[in-house]
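WARN retry 2 of 3 for item q-0093 after timeout on previous attempt; input resubmitted unchanged.
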Amino acid sequence: MKAPRHTLTRTGPLAVLLFVLTLVPAPPADAQLAATCGDRATVLAQLASKYKEAPVNMGLANNGAVMEVLASDEGSWTVILTSPQGITCMVAAGQHWEPVERKKVGYAPSADTKIH
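OK item q-0093 returned
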């Protein structure tokens, strides 16, 4: 008897992202903000003030949470999630953010495609 095949559902991409984020090591303690959750406006203001980060991407999860990626020109980045109740939490942070050109659905990179 064959094992059932697993397929990604509409929540699959978010689940994959959250799994990948668990693999990202936490930044050093001196790079972390004192509070990891709070009011969205306060979290955004702190990230803008301390790291010069601003939103560069966002998406809406099926559970109503908003996921945002913030990045600075210096390359630092932070991922935040805002719950439907309005609580914003930082879930990952790091360095070396690189914007990539958005490709059309079905795009397959060629061997000479350059990664910035």
